[in-house]
Specification:
The chain is mostly helical. It has helices at residues 11-21, 27-37, 48-67. The longest helix has 20 residues, at 48-67.
Length: 73
């Protein structure tokens, strides 16, 4: 597979890359690595922006759990 598929320049390209990721046996590990590394492109079926948002949500949830903070909805 041409790796350029995973660095799309259009929304159609994003959809095509996600389709390739569907059913991949290493999808979760791929996404986790890209999240930790701050990679560009589609990794594990997610965009960089989606991974950043999920990472922020995970960090917030961890802070709430550790500190018992109340979070406004």
């Amino acid at each position: 597979m041409d790796t350029e598929v995973f660095f799309p320049v259009s929304e159609l390209g994003v959809l095509q890359a996600r389709l390739v990721c569907t059913g991949c046996p290493v999808r979760v590990a791929c996404r986790e690595w890209a999240t930790a590394a701050g990679e560009h492109g589609i990794w594990g079926g997610t965009t960089r922006e989606e991974r950043a948002a999920q990472r922020h949500a995970d960090i917030t949830a961890a802070a709430v759990a550790v500190n018992g903070w109340a979070v406004a909805a």
